Amino acid sequence: MSATRPQPRPGVLAIDAYVPGKSTAPGVEKVFKLSSNETPLGPSPKAVAAFKAAAAELERYPDGASTALRAAIAARYGLNAARIVCGAGSDELLSLLAHAYLGPGDEAIFTEHGFLLYRIITLANGATPIVAPEKDLRTDIDRVLARVSERTKVVFLANPNNPTGTYVSFDEVRALRAELPAHVLLVLDAAYAEYARRNDYEAGIELVATTPNTVMTRTFSKIHGLAGLRLGWAYCPEAVADVLNRIRGPFNVSTPALLAGVAAIEDAAHEEASARHNEQWQPWLAAEIEKLGLEVTPSAANFLLVHFAKDGHRGAGAADSFLKSRTIIVRRVDAYGLPDALRMTVGTEADNRAVVAALAQFLGKAAA
Ligand SMILES: Cc1ncc(COP(=O)(O)O)c(C=O)c1O
User: What's the chain's Rg over C-alpha atoms?
Assistant: First the structure.
């Protein structure tokens, strides 16, 4: 029997659409928005100036090859510009990778509390999501490897992961790569790499440089503060860059994003200030929240996963409502299988103090 209306490919209607972090509270003009892991320092003033200057040539198409931006990224990190592909957010690059390498009958592996987009882009391409359980909210390499089959085509690994904030060491990532079959593409999503200042952490550049089957994705949305412009990049083996360049939109990155991106990546001082801010306030926030008796998952990123009691009264839902009543917006993470936790971005000093004071009130305790 023929369908009475157009039908999407199998898998698409199994997708729960991604729900972004909220940015408003009812009846309130100014909120403390700590729901999307944006930087409290904003973008580099030089990036803002470059964005404004782009207004002078909006009638022109952008450089479809993102030449200047790839050169700036290559210079900053010592990379081969020919192996960099830019996109409208790392979201776009992850989607393109799924589109190119996954189809019906294929499997993609990601972890239990891994970034939600992986499930969406796997199903969108008719492939099957395979979920590897985590251990203590952290990727367990052995459990990922145990789920590899003939059908596995891609492994997505956010490192550090959103929403847990946990990371896996370079040794573990290297071991994973070494054990994965050669035909499996390992996608290292390093959206929070700039915050992960740990001796044993490596975003993925070295593995991309030394293996033919590993890709690293990066974003300008987090530490560079350009989330509104949609800008990301991937560092790829030559053959993967070639594939992405064949299927991406010919002008997938806008001129304002390209110009602001160059200014942002060249402003190492601003990036350093943002990283330092996080280094100062993330441990402070974690310690103050722990003093209130809540458990906080150790984070290598610019946000914290905070765990609440399972009972409704003091639970994550009640905490979320209470914080909202104080104009503080954080992120529910039920969709990540974490109904008793909330994810909170490290904000300005005022944001962070407001969160701690509100949580103390919620729990009926005096803030320290
Ligand atoms: C782990 C992870 N990867 C990728 C992204 C997508 O970032 P964007 O598309 O803004 O570059 C996010 C955004 O929240 C993220 O948390």
Answer: 21
Tell me if the bond preceding 212 is cis, omega within 30° of 0: no
CA–CA distance from 185 to each of 181, 194, 215, 288 (Å)?
9, 23, 7, 41
pLDDT mean values, one per 10 residues, the chain (368 residues): 83 86 71 93 98 97 98 98 98 98 98 97 98 98 98 98 98 98 98 97 96 98 98 98 98 98 98 98 98 98 97 92 95 96 97 97 79
| Single-letter amino acid code for the residue at 61 | Y
Inter-residue contact 254 to 62 (CB < 8 Å)? yes
The contacts of residue 228 (CB under 8 Å, 6+ apart) are none
DSSP 148: -
Contact indicator for 257, 226 with CB cutoff of 8 Å: yes
Element (H, E) at 273: helix 268-291
What does the pLDDT read at residue 10? 85
Nearest atom of ligand 1 to the alpha carbon of 158 = 1
User: Tell me, what amino acid is at 365?
Assistant: K
What are 159's two structure tokens? 């490192």
Cβ 91 under 6 angstroms from ligand 1: yes
Q: How close is the Cα of 365 to the center of ligand 1, in Å?
A: 35
Pick the closest to residue 181 from 159, 148, 203, 144 (CA basis).
148
Could you count the other beta carbons within 10 Å of the beta carbon of residue 278? 25
